[in-house]
């Protein structure tokens, strides 16, 4: 380790020094602010922490030290329990934990249920409790044009009876594209962090919130400025640089990158394990105020000392709660337009993705005068920018094959930022759509995001074609499937879509079907995602075409900023490894898989090009920052489901004592192959071929942690001061693999409707599958149902009924893959349970409900499921037979239709009441 990567310790016990280029070695007093800032998560620092007397600290310094050490303990736990790759020694981990325990004993205010000292191993709650907000947390109404914004502004002036000659103070700030959060502080201490939910109740994600570094555990500033109780509203988001770092880490680990910062923040904030959230670099800005109480004994008295939004922000700054720097005080509509124009031009220049501009009446008294509708305040509005359109190059048009065989052209674009994320591909739907848009491969094209969400290729920039005609070419839909080679054709005459008829064995279709059956809408096997599905069904998907790009020992290529990698010289005599046979040739074998079946599965991964930047931190220390800048074109193989060979972890004295007192030793397994060690009989030196050694006696290595599911592939000799020690090197199923098998076991008893969705029956989605499962009661009944039986079920149309009947008819054909899948699943215990009658009260029996727009607490499908589970009909269109229409954000024509027909329109809160009681 270099001097710049570690702290230098003076001989005086407890003194910490760090290397600085300007002053050499600087000494800091133990317990001082500089001393705490200089500490690093090294073993040496941990030892000194263990010797340090925390009773000599002030409460403020103790809180800073606690936060720093607790974060390191969190990281240690993540590395040990989740990544199976500890980064700290047991002694260092124990020393940090003891430091936390001493700090909490000396300063009881630091002791809280979320502290690492209160956690056992890797266990955390899997559920988020539903908690009522002390005061309602509303959404904002949106406008999409300057005209609509002016109408709102004029209505505020009119409703307040505000004199035209008198400026009306307002505040403008960028609308952060993140997730709303309500922070509850009592006597200055963070008590809870709640999601918005439906505005009345939210989910308690306090454990996860405590991992966000910008959210203080205790409000700072003078005591007289800290209230007895306060709700601080704000937004959790991910900065662009942190988003790019996270995606680089995702790609380096072989995981799919996140589409945009909001998705990354949402997935991180609602992790069931807060240790994962702690690694995700989330940020927070406060933008609103809920309930505020100073209390009768408070120096300020009981009155509300915050008169306007600006004063609230000043208080937040005193408390150490971050506020967005992108806000302005304005007094005219023109100043609002100036703000909109400025950030419209600088959307890509600020540190986070933005979703528009929020305009608020600044005075809190005037806010109360204006009041609110059922879902949004009248004193604030969100102006949404029009969809951002950018030009980029159409590099190619490829095709992809979906789970039902549909072949879809996909535009391959030169990567470009559009409305918050990088767009490199977008669907073109079918060959007719390509012709209609008039695009040619090589064109400069216009790209935007429909609704700022879905990438869309608008069309070509025709003036950019001049002089480049010879570089452009027309796209032609392929005649044969790019995955299996089968001849493509429409499913029936007149269809615009063409399909691959090789449903059973087309690798692309099988991969997509496995992804689909594992999704939340089907078996909900969370850890069987896209990459795992590819590894099971088509592990050679990214196999290089030539040995010239096969680099088995290169996992990344390091370059200086702006430099190109050196040319790769292939190793002489190197050959590509033999192609692997997929573990799954169809879905039938899914529930018969074992971890042993997956041990040898390897997938191809491209070595990344990584720029190494050297920077100097605020403390003057040099540090190296890695940035993934692209792919090198060089490929190597990595294990898909098992860990790479890793030396076993040596047990601590405490763990050895516990094992001696009663832990059952792992059963011995017969040794075979390799040159035997004199002391253990295990192979030594070179790694033994995977799959040839079932494992060795863990009892032979009592001082090492060899899990029961691990396989010892070799034994290394480690030379120490006391001699030569044998260190077992192990592989085992990865953490995600173990979770995947646990989830597959639960899926054997999935609800009947989920089994129907998992069968990939064309046109059959979760809502209709629920209806059929509920009405028919068992898989046997559905297998034998006629079209007439199914169309008799309210909500099941003739096309879906025909599709279901045809699918089950095919299962009775000799040799049909669908029949083989169905029988194999039933033999494994899948789909044999009868449909359970909903345990929920049937509050919506006989009622028809339409949901339109976006709801905070429900996706489109989950809202429909909530209606169906309670006996109601979830309709897709509004008619005279509709009983209620639930109106979410950005509701469209259905809201107008409901108003025209006089049908009751409900807010999300009223929808929750309807679900619970059946009445409003």
Automatic annotation (TrEMBL):
Q: Where does NAD(+) bind?
A: 90-94, 139-140, 173, 196, 235, 360, 384
Question: Which GO terms fall under molecular function for this chain's record?
Answer: DNA ligase (NAD+) activity; metal ion binding
Provide the BRCT domain boundaries: 839-920
Which keywords does this Swiss-Prot/TrEMBL entry list?
DNA damage, DNA repair, DNA replication, Ligase, Magnesium, Manganese, Metal-binding, NAD, Zinc
Q: Give the InterPro entries listed for this entry.
A: BRCT_dom (IPR001357), BRCT_dom_sf (IPR036420), DisA/LigA_HHH (IPR041663), DNA_ligase (IPR001679), DNA_ligase_AS (IPR018239), DNA_ligase_CS (IPR033136), DNAligase_adenylation (IPR013839), DNAligase_N (IPR013840)
Enzyme Commission number(s): 6.5.1.2
A Gene Ontology biological process term: DNA replication
The record's Gene Ontology cellular component field reads:
cytosol
Its family remark reads: Belongs to the NAD-dependent DNA ligase family. LigA subfamily.
PANTHER family according to UniProt: CHROMOSOME TRANSMISSION FIDELITY FACTOR 18 (PTHR23389), DNA LIGASE (PTHR23389:SF9)
According to UniProt, the name of this protein is DNA ligase
Tell me the organism: Bifidobacterium longum subsp. longum
| Gene expressing this chain | ligA
């Amino acid at each position: 380790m270099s001097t710049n990567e570690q702290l230098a310790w003076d001989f005086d016990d407890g003194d910490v020094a760090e290397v600085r280029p300007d002053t050499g070695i600087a000494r800091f007093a133990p317990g001082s602010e500089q001393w705490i800032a200089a500490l690093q998560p090294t073993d040496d620092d941990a030892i000194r922490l263990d010797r340090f007397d925390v009773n000599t600290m002030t409460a403020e310094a103790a809180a800073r030290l606690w936060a720093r050490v607790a974060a390191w303990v969190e990281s240690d736990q993540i590395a040990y329990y989740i990544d199976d790759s500890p980064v700290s020694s047991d002694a260092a981990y124990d020393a940090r934990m003891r430091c936390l325990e001493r700090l909490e004993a000396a300063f009881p205010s630091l002791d809280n249920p979320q502290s690492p000292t209160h956690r056992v191993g890797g266990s955390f709650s899997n559920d988020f409790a539903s908690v009522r907000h002390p005061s309602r947390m509303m959404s904002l109404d949106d406008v999409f044009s300057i005209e609509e914004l002016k109408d709102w502004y004029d209505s505020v002036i009119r409703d307040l009876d505000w004199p035209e000659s008198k400026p009306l103070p307002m505040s403008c700030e960028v609308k952060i594209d993140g997730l709303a959060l309500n922070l509850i502080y009592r006597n200055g201490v963070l008590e809870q962090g709640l999601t918005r939910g439906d505005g009345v109740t939210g989910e308690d994600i306090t454990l996860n919130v405590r991992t966000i570094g910008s959210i203080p555990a205790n409000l700072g500033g003078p005591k007289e400025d800290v209230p007895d109780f306060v709700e601080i509203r704000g937004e959790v988001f991910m900065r662009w640089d942190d988003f790019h770092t996270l995606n680089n880490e995702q790609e380096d680990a072989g995981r799919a990158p996140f589409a945009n910062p909001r998705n990354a923040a949402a997935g991180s904030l609602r992790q069931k394990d807060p240790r994962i959230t702690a690694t995700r670099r989330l940020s927070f800005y406060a933008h609103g105020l809920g309930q505020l109480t100073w209390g009768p004994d408070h120096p300020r008295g009981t009155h509300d000392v915050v008169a306007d939004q600006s004063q609230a922000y000043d208080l937040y700054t005193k408390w150490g709660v971050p506020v967005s720097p992108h806000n302005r005080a304005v007094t005219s509509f023109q100043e609002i337009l100036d703000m909109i124009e400025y950030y419209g031009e600088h959307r890509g220049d600020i540190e986070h993705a933005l979703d528009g501009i929020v305009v608020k009446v600044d005075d809190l008294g005037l806010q109360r005068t204006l009041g609110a509708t059922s879902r949004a305040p009248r004193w604030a509005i969100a102006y949404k920018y029009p969809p951002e359109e950018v030009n980029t190059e159409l590099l190619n048009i490829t095709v992809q094959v979906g789970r039902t065989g549909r072949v879809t052209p996909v535009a391959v674009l030169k990567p470009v930022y559009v409305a918050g994320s990088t767009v490199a591909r977008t669907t073109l739907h079918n060959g007719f759509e390509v012709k209609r848009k008039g695009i040619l491969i090589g064109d400069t094209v216009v790209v935007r995001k429909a609704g700022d969400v879905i990438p869309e290729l608008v069309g070509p920039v025709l003036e950019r074609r001049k002089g480049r005609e010879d570089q452009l070419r027309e796209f032609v839909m392929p005649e044969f499937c790019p995955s299996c080679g089968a001849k493509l054709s429409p499913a029936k005459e007149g269809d615009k879509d063409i399909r691959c008829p090789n449903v059973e064995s087309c690798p692309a279709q099988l991969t997509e079907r496995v992804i689909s059956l594992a999704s939340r809408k089907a078996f909900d096997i969370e850890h069987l995602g896209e990459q795992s599905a590819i590894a099971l069904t088509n592990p050679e998907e990214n196999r290089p075409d030539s040995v010239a790009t096969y680099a088995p020992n290169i996992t990344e290529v390091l370059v200086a900023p702006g430099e190109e990698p050196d040319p790769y010289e292939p190793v002489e005599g190197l050959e590509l490894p033999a192609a692997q046979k997929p573990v799954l040739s169809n879905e039938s074998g899914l529930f018969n898989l074992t971890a042993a079946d997956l041990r040898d599965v390897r997938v191809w991964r491209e070595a990344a090009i990584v720029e190494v930047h050297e920077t100097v931190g605020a403390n003057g220390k040099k540090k190296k920052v890695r940035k993934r800048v692209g792919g090198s074109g060089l490929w190597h193989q990595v294990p898909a489901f098992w860990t790479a060979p890793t030396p076993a972890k040596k047990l601590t004295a405490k763990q050895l004592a516990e094992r001696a007192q009663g832990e059952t030793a792992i059963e011995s397994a017969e040794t075979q192959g390799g040159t035997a060690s004199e002391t253990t009989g295990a192979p030594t030196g070179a790694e033994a071929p995977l799959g040839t050694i079932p494992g060795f006696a863990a009892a032979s290595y009592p001082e090492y942690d060899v899990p029961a599911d691990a396989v010892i592939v070799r034994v290394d000799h480690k030379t120490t001061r006391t001699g030569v020690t044998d260190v077992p090197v192990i592989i085992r199923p990865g953490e995600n693999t173990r979770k995947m098998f646990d989830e597959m076991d639960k899926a054997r008893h999935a609800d009947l409707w989920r089994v129907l969705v998992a069968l990939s029956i064309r046109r059959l989605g979760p809502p209709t599958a629920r209806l059929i499962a509920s009405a028919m009661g068992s898989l046997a009944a559905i297998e034998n149902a006629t079209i007439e039986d199914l169309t008799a079920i309210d909500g099941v149309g003739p096309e879906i009924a025909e599709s279901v009947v045809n699918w089950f008819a095919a299962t009775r054909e000799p040799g049909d893959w669908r029949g083989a899948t169905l029988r194999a699943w039933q033999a494994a215990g899948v789909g044999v349970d009868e449909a359970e009658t909903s345990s929920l009260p049937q509050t919506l029996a006989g009622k028809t409900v339409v949901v339109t727009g976006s709801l905070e607490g429900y996706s489109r499908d989950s809202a429909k499921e909530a209606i169906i589970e309670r006996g109601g009909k979830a309709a897709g269109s509004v008619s005279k037979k509709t009983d209620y229409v639930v109106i979410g954000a950005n509701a469209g024509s259905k809201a107008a239709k409901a108003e025209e027909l006089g049908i009751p329109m409900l807010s999300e809160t009223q929808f929750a009441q309807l679900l619970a009681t059946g009445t409003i």
